[in-house]
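@channel sequence for tomorrow's demo:
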Amino acid sequence: MPRRRADASVPAASPLHPRNHHHGRYDLAVLCQANPALRAHLLHTLGGAQSIDFSAPAAVRELNRALLRQYYGIAHWDIPDGYLCPPVPGRVDYLHGLADLLAADNGGVLPRGPQWRVLDIGVGANVIYPLLGHAEYGWSFVGSDIAAASLQHARANVQGNRLEAVIDLRLQANRGQLFKGVIGAGERFALSLCNPPFHASAEEAARGSVRKLRNLAAGRPVPGSRQAPALNFGGQANELWCTGGEASFLRRMVNESVDVADQVLWFSSLVAKSEHLPGLHRQLGKAGAREVREVAMAQGSKRSRFVAWSFQPAAQRQRWLQPG
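structure tokens (generated this afternoon):
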């Protein structure tokens, strides 16, 4: 019988991962030194604290540039207007959790170096997981996407940091497939990761953006201190929604993972909506997953998690990771 359990080492209301650089409040003075363009977006909240307006795309983009330069040595990072601008602390938390997953099969030793190959399904224009994963652990990546325009922007970020040797970007020509057409014959990956589209339609995505902005209202600028920016609905269609939404995407991922079970040691995906977890666990059991881990994550008041599964038993996973 497959074993399915929540990872008790990370409680449901846990803070950021212990190795995450971003505990506590941002040091905006330090970040402005790393990226002087951030200064133009500083403001004071209703409570009197210095901050930025997290609903303003330009402000969040400059904050990301500052974080990437200061903590990860990533000198070049840019995305076009209207593309998804990811929160760096949450993205790197997912990577730390995956590193722990591999370490458990690797005698407790954290996986470091380009021999650890990772597949990013839906890499996006921001190519954030490959950039962070290589900076933190030295991993090499293959990133796939169905949008040629997104890959063009992602490639500019990779080239701007001279990481072509360790980050390979591939177009998924068949929108109905995730792994087939990306993973080559004989290729093996220690991990696959994914941040799937949350919503089932453009209308649902727009409603979700409105709710997010309402939640940010407490951090809006003091009236008169700085003009409030336009609403941020950042994200291209394929970044925000797909037919059937997150639940359908996850079902497709599980079904397709069976076909490449011998080429990927651990499959994983973020799961935004907790109501999708029971169905996902049932499907993984039917698919024959030998091990399933559910790892909780948290950033401030936001609660999330990722689910990882492997078709290899523990002894085989350990042999997989042995050099040679």
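heads up for whoever presents: The radius of gyration is 20 Å.
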